[in-house]
Amino acid sequence: MHEPGPPRTTSVGDSVELAPRNPDPDGTYEWTLRDAPEESDGGVLDFGQTSRADAPVVHLRPDVPGTYVLTLDAPDGTHRQRVRAYPDERRSVELRVPAADLPVDDGDVDRVSLMWSHNDRLLARDRPERDGDDWVYEVRVPPGRHGFSFVANDDPGNVHSDEVTVPGPGRPRVSLSATVVDGEAGSGPSVRIDADAAAPPDLDGDGEIGRNGGDSPVAVDFLVDDRDAAPEAVARIESLTAGDTLSVPLAELPDDLAGGIRIHAVPHADRYGAGETVRIERDEGGSIAVSDPHAPPEWADSPTIYEVFVRSFAGDTLPTTFREIERRVPYIESLGVDALWLTPVLASPTEHGYHVTDYGDTAADLGDREAFESLVDACHEAGIRVVFDLVINHTSRDHPFFQMHAAGVDAYADHYRRTDGTFDVTDTDWAELADGDMPEYYFNWRRIPNLNFDSPAVREWLLDVVDEWSAVVDGFRADVAWGVPHGFWKEVGERVPDDFLLLDETLPHDPFYGEGEFDIHYDTSLYGVLRKVGAGEAPADAISEAFDRAEWLGFDDPSRQMRYVENHDEERYLAEYGLWALKAAAAATFTLPGAPMIYAGQERGNETYRGPIRWHDGDNALTDFHRDLAALREREPLLRDGAVDFEGRAAGVSVVDGDPERVTAYERTTTADSVLVVINFADRPARVAVPPTFEADLFAGDGAARIDGEVTVESVAVLREEAPPSDACRRGDRDDPYK
């Protein structure tokens, strides 16, 4: 089936990509805009880089709010696609950089490029103009803190980076509950869907995020999936909405529910937020069941992840192979991890593997496919899932497809994106890219051209890659997930097995990748805060700001974040901030909601970010510290499932002896239990006073001791409550936080 997927959402001024599922490169497709809001001129239907009126992939840019209805004529029939457009979220802002701040003498600057997430991080697309002593660019962007770069002479080596804050509301959040209820007053049974919508906090001009939701009420739109019911049934069901509730009599549901009917809920106030979905199904016996079709696999409910930079894992004397990694599976198992994330293992001319030259073959230096599958089997025997690094935003320029594309072979003409070449020829790398039309790539990644997802041939090829490797491993970590269209990831999310994990790399943090796409997200918000705390640029209490930011961005579930202090792209935390700070930061990732990640070598005391693992001279005490964190998290459900509270009783923790700027505390709670976590980033122990109901330290590995209501904390203490707290205490009663 070539149906184009679920209803899509966007806002005026932003485009949304629409594409057939399971595309046939030889098939004929035609998109038609059937209906648009009365005030609309039809929006803009862009045919992308194919520039064909019969393009299989199109980009709709709405011009007014409302619902746009399109049809796709495909080889298997006609399909309906709706796009709900919300009001323009953008605000005007001026980006201004003094010419003296650019890393090139003013007289030598001929032109400047703006490069940031709002122009796909592409050079030469947007050009600031000279205004007196400054370079200036005026633009409209949504509220938020936006990092940007001015690039002198279009040379990525000449960059000045800055940040601009656009004040305004965040995105609302929604969670759904659905039940089958008996009818009242003679009516039949129905499915009741309740949406719990939360207002976002506001961001002020200083970049500070409020602690409470904004003043604008949050409404919810219920959208029936057009793939599951005829247009008349869709309209009839959606008309049954009453506020934040949709009650659907079973008699109104289509007779054929074999595949279920999906209903999406989208929160909106001043801005719109990421939607959630429920599926209604009828089994063979006629019983109705409701479920979340995008629920993560059970094994991936806040898993502990271990990332291995493959070619350095065997150490500094042996070359790394799949066999050498397999021999070390008992060590990985000893760390108490649930999932092993391997950096790319496919054929590539680079050590890091992110320049892929063959998606069907493993790298020769690592071993053949049989050896890789043996490693996967060994991990499974140890109870460890394997996460495969999926690199499909780009290929190596040494990939045969790119070589044929560059050589003008017609069959590969649309496989890669093109852009205008406006660069000076300053070295051999630039020479082949100058003089007009050239391959598109992000940043200064000159050797990895971007694939063109407007091409059905590319989509078919990469979906085959997804099918092939999802049958071997347990999950994908998607490299440069932000460079691949949402529509493609939605198709991947419905294509992989139900127990398969999808982990995104999105920079910056973006909740829309959780909208039927990814199960767990890179938490760049906490990562950035932990770096600032380690450097002494922010107090330890700033950890709570990362959670405020996630709420402002529109994330609803904090357990769906991957928490990390370093990875293969970042400098080692130990080298930057020292051992004491590393232990505190690692403890935070293991005691906050979410999926903690250890980057191999972090636990051994590595100080080079891609260097060989220190097997023979590593820090065994630090390794044991990480083992103890994983073991504590495994045996204490509160640390995996409990809510987090940075106020309430945690605010009653005070430093008696130590640096209060380097100590923070938070509570993990359920309705029946509670633990208090105290984290110390300082390079000496801190003595802190804690509420008297918190007694035994559960983390014996760090030697915390309680005497007369005070606890001495080296890096972390996790204290269990002596007795269940009162309801007032659960609410965080600030007048009497200990009662």
Descriptive overview:
This protein is an alpha+beta fold. Helix content is 18%, strand content 30%. It has 15 helices and 44 strands. Mean pLDDT is 91; it is low at 423-436 and 727-739.
In brief:
With 739 residues, the chain is α+β, with helices and mostly antiparallel strands.
Average pLDDT rating: 91
Q: Regions with pLDDT < 50 over 5+ consecutive residues?
A: 423-436, 727-739
Helix content: 10-25%
| Rounded radius of gyration (Å) | 27 Å
Number of helices: 15
From the N-terminal CA to the C-terminal CA, the straight-line distance is 61 Å
Number of strands: 44
Strand content: 25-35%
Strand arrangement across the biggest beta sheet? 24-25-28-31-32-33-34-35
Structural class of the helix and strand makeup? alpha+beta
Q: Note the main sheet.
A: 8 strands, parallel, barrel
What sort of overall outline do the alpha carbons produce when their principal axes are compared? globular
